[in-house]
Amino acid sequence: MLTAVTLACRHWGRRATMLLAGASFLAGVVLCTTAVALGMLIVGRIFLGFGVGFANQAMPFSLLQSLVISWPARLRVHAALNSYLSPT
Q1: Domain boundary assignment for the chain
Q2: What is the DSSP secondary structure assignment for residue 81, as one 8-state letter?
Q3: Full-model pTM
């Protein structure tokens, strides 16, 4: 199943996708902090959700690519990520 994060990572790369997630999270924080109406708070929460969701999905694979570890340890990390990311 392809999600929006998967497509963004394929098109722009993981680094740009994580920067997008950080910018979305920051925009959500600013909106929630300065909210003077219920609509601003709701929009801020939506931005926060996108930021956290994008970062949660893009970050584990980015960390995995930057690891310099032995093959047996790498297989354990892959197994752990597969169990974490597999749908139940």
Answers
A1: 4-85
A2: H
A3: 0.67
